[in-house]
């Protein structure tokens, strides 16, 4: 077949923006921080968004308001994603109010204490595993019957570059985020035959509310792209992994950090 044979030339279609119209997306921990930005971005792409929160109803309402101001659809749902009964009730409520979940973004997190090995207790590790292993497991188990029935679904786990860096005095968090990568790959293999994709998004240091007062300059100077990342950088990547544009991508860990971990 010659290089000019039409059959040997890949078809070229114009690039289009990710389209999530008709999709229901659940974002955990979406009342503020990266979760809020991800929820807003998914709504911009056309998804109806379930905004999960644990504590602040006012913050969750603000996320919903931001989405609605842009013409999107969203509703807030309170739930402790580390509790099995709470997760079951959450998914049932979303199904009744919006429809079955097509996109699950496991973003929720709790306190992230920095502790020396001598200061660490097993409970410190268990706390992190609850958010980054137990909660995703409970949520996936809850949405899986519907995804399998439709033979479609996208699960996006929010990891971290700390797995590559191995930050000192942060072993409980690093350990739990490392476990999330293995879990993602195993689930991708298991769920791929059902048309369900599972990927992990690993952000770099993206200053949000929890980082108030932290000087990012020491980090910024080591970023090859020579700027700090913004929440929109993570949100756009999450939309890509959730959308049909990544239809042949599963089991992957996508680092979004301006190249910070390139040399690691």
Automatic annotation (TrEMBL):
Keyword Oxidoreductase: yes
Keywords per UniProt: Oxidoreductase
GO biological process: bile acid metabolic process
InterPro entries: NAD(P)-bd_dom_sf, Sc_DH/Rdtase_CS, SDR_fam
Region (Disordered): 1-20
Any one GO molecular function term: oxidoreductase activity
PROSITE patterns to which the protein is assigned, alphabetical: ADH_SHORT
Protein family according to the UniProt entry: Belongs to the short-chain dehydrogenases/reductases (SDR) family.
Annotated protein name in UniProt: SDR family oxidoreductase
């Amino acid at each position: 077949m010659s290089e000019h044979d039409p059959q040997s030339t890949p078809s070229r279609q114009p690039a289009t923006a990710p389209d999530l119209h008709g999709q229901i997306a659940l974002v955990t921990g979406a009342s503020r921080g990266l979760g809020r930005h991800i929820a807003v971005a998914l709504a911009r792409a056309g998804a109806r968004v379930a905004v999960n929160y644990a504590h602040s109803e006012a913050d969750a309402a603000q996320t919903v308001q931001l989405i609605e101001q842009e013409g999107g659809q969203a509703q807030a749902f309170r739930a402790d994603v580390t509790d099995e009964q709470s997760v079951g009730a959450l998914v049932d409520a979303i199904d009744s109010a919006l429809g079955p979940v097509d996109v699950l973004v496991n973003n929720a997190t709790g306190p992230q204490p920095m502790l020396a090995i001598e200061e660490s207790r097993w409970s410190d590790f268990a706390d992190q595993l609850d958010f980054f292993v137990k909660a995703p497991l409970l949520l996936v188990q809850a949405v899986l019957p519907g995804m399998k029935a439709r033979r479609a679904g996208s699960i996006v786990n929010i990891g971290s570059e700390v797995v590559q860096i191995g930050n000192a005095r942060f072993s409980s968090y690093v350990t739990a985020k490392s476990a999330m990568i293995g879990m993602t790959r195993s689930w991708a293999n298991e769920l791929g035959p059902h048309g369900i994709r599972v990927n992990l998004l690993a952000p770099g240091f993206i200053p949000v509310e929890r980082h108030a007062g932290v000087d990012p300059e020491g980090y910024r100077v080591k970023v090859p792209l020579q700027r700090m990342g913004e929440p929109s950088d993570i949100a756009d990547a999450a939309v890509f992994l959730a959308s049909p544009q990544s239809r042949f991508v599963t089991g992957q860990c996508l680092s979004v950090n301006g190249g910070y971990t390139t040399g690691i």
